[in-house]
Each structure stands twice: as structure tokens, then as C-alpha cells.
């Protein structure tokens, strides 16, 4: 019996989940927010309890110390010796990492080098890795990469139509993201359909604050909507998704608030999407409230959002030459039945039909009608469990 911690570290946050393995039982979970800022918040949930503490947490090392101290303080574990492994979610693995790997000095350096591909995520992940290595140096430490699942894409799919020197010299290509989620829900879809994954063609739609769509043929990613960075693809909560690249120099030339490309990219990442168009919120619940109130900006934001998701799903029907099932997952994918209904309504030509009695908030499973030519599934993603499984696999391999 072992205990494994799955870690998802951002620039100012650290989410975690502690599992008892191999039973895959969640013992506790929590999040530490506002790291490096005043009034940091540490929240721990266990056995139906929720504990919250506000203090100043200057860096990720101190955050990890608090996490570990809480495990002892709340009697979740009696000794650090019970912790046998830690798995770190890494957004960008570039071309270095085709699968999850045991952490060593070279791996840490490479993850740090790849920060340019995920500047909001990789630096925080490196800080988390170093903190655990300092405090628990003898446990199995593993990096699990969002990009590794997409390394099965073929060259004609992942290359951009620009001079090839930008790939050979600068490694500019499509990398994708959310791979751990897409891999997990594809496996769960195969179980739900009672068919081997190796026989299925699936379109998996991870629709949260970040949005990515993946074409999965026989268990492998053959195309995905996120690109060189997680900014590409459909419209998202605060990200624009795909735009004409010529817009960037045009904005710099005409908007005095935008000094350079970095300013524009920051706007496209943090001030666009549902939040930018609506002027209300990046949260679909607030957008839906705006729809009910007749707010025209909320209506427009919602219509663009549905339009872009529908288009990516449509093109992946072409990539796969048909699909057995479409899977919705993540925050909005799992909890926004109106959005699912309106996306599917625009795909009726493919013979997709959903049952309105099943397409409701809280329902998980097959929401399509018996006559639907393509099954529509709602599956809760579990990236943390995938991370814990990889830690266990590599711990026994080591």
C-alpha cells in the first residue's frame, strides 16, 4: 500500500490530491492560492471536512511545506514515510518527452527550458518539483506531460505551413495540451461503449476555461486544436483561440495601449474569449444568466463560443472520416447542457441526436438517442488519477 500526491502547480497556485494506491482512493485534496501574494489561502478537504487558512506564503517551497504539515496536522497521514510518490502535471513537454518520466536534474532543466511554450504553467511546475525534491528527496518523483499524448500526430498535422527552418531551428510546431484529460476520457468512453479503444474513432471535447478538441483514432491522438501554445483552437474563457496573425501587428500599430507583441498576446490570453466579448465574465454560468436577461454582448459571446466549438468538431469528423462517439468533458463540457444542445444542433447532418431528458445538469453517461449515428457521452475527467497511475507504474518500474 502506498500514498501518492498528484500536483498541479501554476504560477501562483498549487492544487493537489492524495491517493491511496493501488486502490485509487482519494484520501484528501486541496489548493493553495495566491502564492507570492499577501493573504495566501490554503484549503484542505478530507473525510467530509473542509479546513481553510489564510497566511502569507512567499513561494512554492513554503506552499509544499504547508501542504505536508497539513497532512500530519489533520491526521491524514501519521508520517511522511507513508508518501511513496509525487506526480507533477507539466503543460509543455515539447519534443523532449513522449511519455511520463522519472524526475532527475536533466528533466528539471528541460522542463524549465520549455517555459517559453507555457509561460503561465511550466515555471510554477518547476518550482513545485524543486520544492518536493528538497523536502522529500527519497520518494518517486514523476513528470506527467499534457503534450505527450499528442506526440502521435503525424508530421503533416503538427507542422505549420511556414518555412521549415522554423521547425528545424526553433521547434515551432503544434504541441497541443490537455493530453492527460483526452487520454483518460477516451479510455472511459471505450468502457462505456463496451468496445476496445483500439477499434474506436472518438472526438473528445475538453471544454473548461481552456478549450481543446482532439481527434482520437484507435486510442491515439491524430489531431488536436491547441497548437504551439494553449492559445490556439476554439474561443475559450479568457483566450481568443485562433485569429488571423496579421491582427497582431495591426493592433500594435493602432492601439496606443499595446506597445509590443507581448502586450497583444497577453490580451489574447487573459482578456479575450467569453470574458472579453461579453464584458461580463469568462464563466459560462454568468453568460447563461446574461442570455436569460437578454444581454446582447452575452448572447454574442455565447454564439461565437458555440460556433467555434462546432467548427472544430466538424473538421475532426473529416480528419477521422467519421466517428463512433463525441465526448464532452471538463467544467463546461460536463456542466453546461445548453451549450451541448446548441453545439449538437449544428451537427445534425452527421446523424447526431441527443435525448433532452438526459442532457441535463449533473447527468453523466450516454446522452444520445438510440437512433443517433454517433454516440454523445458526458464523462467527468480525472487528470489527477492519471498522474497517480503513472507514478505507480514508474515507481514499480524503477
TrEMBL record:
Pathway(s) served: Metabolic intermediate biosynthesis; acetyl-CoA biosynthesis; acetyl-CoA from acetate: step 1/2
Binding annotation for Mg(2+): 8, 383
Positions annotated to bind substrate: 89
Catalytic activity, EC: 2.7.2.1
UniProt entry tagged with the keyword Transferase: yes
Catalytic-site annotation from UniProt: 146
Family: Belongs to the acetokinase family.
Assembly notes: Homodimer.
Free-text function comment from the UniProt entry: Catalyzes the formation of acetyl phosphate from acetate and ATP. Can also catalyze the reverse reaction.
UniProt name for this protein: Acetate kinase
Organism: Streptococcus didelphis
Amino acid at each position: 500500500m502506498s500514498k501518492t500526491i498528484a500536483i498541479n502547480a501554476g504560477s501562483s497556485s498549487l492544487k493537489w490530491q492524495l491517493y491511496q494506491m493501488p486502490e485509487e482512493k482519494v484520501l484528501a485534496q486541496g489548493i493553495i492560492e495566491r502564492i507570492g501574494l499577501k493573504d495566501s489561502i490554503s484549503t484542505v478537504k478530507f473525510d467530509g471536512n473542509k479546513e481553510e487558512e489564510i497566511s502569507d506564503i512567499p513561494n512554492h517551497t513554503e506552499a509544499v511545506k504547508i501542504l505536508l504539515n497539513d497532512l500530519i496536522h489533520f491526521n491524514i497521514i501519521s508520517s511522511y514515510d507513508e508518501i511513496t510518490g509525487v506526480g507533477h502535471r507539466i503543460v509543455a513537454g515539447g519534443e523532449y518527452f513522449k511519455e511520463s518520466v522519472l524526475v532527475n536534474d536533466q528533466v528539471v532543466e528541460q522542463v524549465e527550458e520549455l517555459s517559453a511554450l507555457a509561460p503561465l504553467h511550466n515555471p510554477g511546475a518547476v518550482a513545485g518539483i524543486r520544492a518536493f525534491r528538497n523536502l522529500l528527496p527519497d520518494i518517486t518523483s514523476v513528470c506527467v506531460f499534457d503534450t505527450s499524448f499528442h506526440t502521435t500526430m503525424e508530421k503533416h498535422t503538427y507542422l505549420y505551413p511556414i518555412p521549415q527552418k522554423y521547425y528545424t531551428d526553433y521547434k515551432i510546431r503544434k504541441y497541443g495540451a490537455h493530453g492527460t484529460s483526452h487520454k483518460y476520457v477516451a479510455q472511459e468512453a471505450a468502457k462505456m461503449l463496451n468496445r476496445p479503444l483500439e477499434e474506436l474513432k472518438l472526438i473528445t471535447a475538453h471544454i473548461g476555461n481552456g478549450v481543446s478538441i482532439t481527434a482520437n483514432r484507435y486510442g491515439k491522438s491524430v489531431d488536436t486544436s491547441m497548437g504551439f501554445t494553449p492559445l490556439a483552437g476554439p474561443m475559450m474563457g479568457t483566450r481568443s483561440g485562433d485569429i488571423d496573425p496579421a491582427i497582431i501587428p495591426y493592433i500594435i500599430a493602432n492601439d496606443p495601449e499595446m506597445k509590443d507583441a507581448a502586450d497583444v498576446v497577453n490580451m489574447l490570453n487573459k482578456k479575450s474569449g467569453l470574458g472579453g466579448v461579453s464584458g461580463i465574465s469568462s464563466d459560462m454560468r454568468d453568460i447563461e444568466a446574461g442570455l436569460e436577461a437578454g444581454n446582447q454582448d452575452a448572447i454574442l459571446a455565447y454564439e461565437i463560443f458555440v460556433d467555434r466549438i462546432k467548427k472544430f468538431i466538424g473538421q475532426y469528423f473529416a480528419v477521422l472520416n467519421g466517428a463512433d462517439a463525441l465526448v464532452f468533458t471538463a467544467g463546461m463540457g460536463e456542466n453546461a447542457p445548453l451549450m451541448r444542445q446548441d453545439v449538437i444542433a449544428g451537427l445534425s447532418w452527421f446523424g447526431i441526436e441527443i435525448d433532452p431528458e438526459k442532457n441535463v445538469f449533473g447527468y453523466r453517461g450516454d446522452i444520445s438517442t438510440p437512433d443517433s449515428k454517433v454516440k454523445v457521452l458526458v464523462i467527468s475527467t480525472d487528470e489527477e488519477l492519471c498522474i497517480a497511475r503513472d507514478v505507480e507504474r514508474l515507481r514499480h518500474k524503477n
